[in-house]
Amino acid sequence: MAIDQHGDAKLQGVSIRSLPKVSLHDHLDGALRPQTIIELAEEAGIEVPAAAADDLADWFEDQADSGSLVEYLKTFDLTIAVMQTRDGLRRVAREFVEDLAADGVIYGEVRWAPEQHLAGGLSLDEVVDAVQEGIEEGEDAAEAGGHDIRVGQLITAMRHADRSLEIAKLAIAHRGRGAVGFDIAGAEDGFPASKHREAFEYLASEFFPVTVHAGEAAGLDSIRSALIDGRALRLGHGVRIAEDLDVIEEKGDEVQVRFGSLARWVRDREIPLELSPSSNLQTGAVAAWGTKLEDHPFDLLYQLGFAVTVNVDNRTMSRTSLTRELSLLADTFEYTLDDLEAFQLNAAAAAFLTVEEREELIELIAEGFAG
């Protein structure tokens, strides 16, 4: 299957970009347009490593392709630096929604950490309001262009810091005003969800949904902590749940697998995995299985019945889109439109929406894939 320069491909005669999609794991500070970074950096007097947008895009991709989450995260120093003003945050959020709409996304959840955007003198409430303004401007622009899209904020705390309870309270304060869920992100190894148990207990008492980065830079203990201490309804990445699977025998297309207790719980409870194929390769999250997409345990998890979803993680760093991720998976594992639809239905069912809203989303996906 030929994938064009925009990451699109035709599958069974249908453009993958044209299909309705749900994006659950998409970082705002990892999704800036290179030209926007250059312009905002110039306004703020910040030096950039490349003066042309294409060259800057190359720089991000090269820097992120390190095989280490710690090195990968260093690229965010630049993007976060240009997101310290109300206007900068509004612009980035507006363009983010416009880019999602161009990607065929009809529902998205954008995660970002307000505590990282206070250097310009804004308060936590002000930065959340600025991002929400940008999101709504982007939704209006998409609607004017004939594309209906809805985007909710996942208010995120940095797991190596000590502000998680404060950020959890911020998320609740903005519930109904854009915030739909909570997350912790950043360096995973050494900073399990248990370190933020007070925040998670507070969120649970408020019946506020949580997703937790786990099973990316750390393994099964991190996933276990996300589920038990974090009370996570979804796993951010979660790809290393495959470490709890013992492949006993492979015969053709059939694989005999022995489940560990954690993997069986995640599979049987249909806890969604927010898998990000390209990013997982860049950060070394799947290094135990190999270095190429064909080595990624995505297909194994899918065939075993896990609730897999497809995500971009960071569009700028991975130079990707949801369309491209789906195109690459379809090409690598010979997926059909039915498979791609299953991934979108899994994501719709996992969205932090009401039952009625999720059912409506599922109907829109079914209609879109039916043509």
TrEMBL record:
<dbReference type="GO" id="GO:0046103">
    <property type="term" value="P:inosine biosynthetic process"/>
</dbReference>
<keyword id="KW-0862">Zinc</keyword>
<dbReference type="Pfam" id="PF00962">
    <property type="entry name" value="A_deaminase"/>
</dbReference>
<dbReference type="GO" id="GO:0046872">
    <property type="term" value="F:metal ion binding"/>
</dbReference>
<dbReference type="InterPro" id="IPR001365">
    <property type="entry name" value="A_deaminase_dom"/>
</dbReference>
<dbReference type="InterPro" id="IPR032466">
    <property type="entry name" value="Metal_Hydrolase"/>
</dbReference>
<keyword id="KW-0479">Metal-binding</keyword>
<feature type="domain" description="Adenosine deaminase">
    <location>
        <begin position="20"/>
        <end position="367"/>
    </location>
</feature>
<dbReference type="GO" id="GO:0043103">
    <property type="term" value="P:hypoxanthine salvage"/>
</dbReference>
<protein>
    <recommendedName>
        <fullName>adenosine deaminase</fullName>
        <ecNumber>3.5.4.4</ecNumber>
    </recommendedName>
</protein>
<dbReference type="GO" id="GO:0005829">
    <property type="term" value="C:cytosol"/>
</dbReference>
<dbReference type="GO" id="GO:0004000">
    <property type="term" value="F:adenosine deaminase activity"/>
</dbReference>
<dbReference type="GO" id="GO:0006154">
    <property type="term" value="P:adenosine catabolic process"/>
</dbReference>
<dbReference type="InterPro" id="IPR006330">
    <property type="entry name" value="Ado/ade_deaminase"/>
</dbReference>
<comment type="similarity">
    <text>Belongs to the metallo-dependent hydrolases superfamily. Adenosine and AMP deaminases family.</text>
</comment>
<keyword id="KW-0378">Hydrolase</keyword>
<dbReference type="GO" id="GO:0009117">
    <property type="term" value="P:nucleotide metabolic process"/>
</dbReference>
<keyword id="KW-0546">Nucleotide metabolism</keyword>
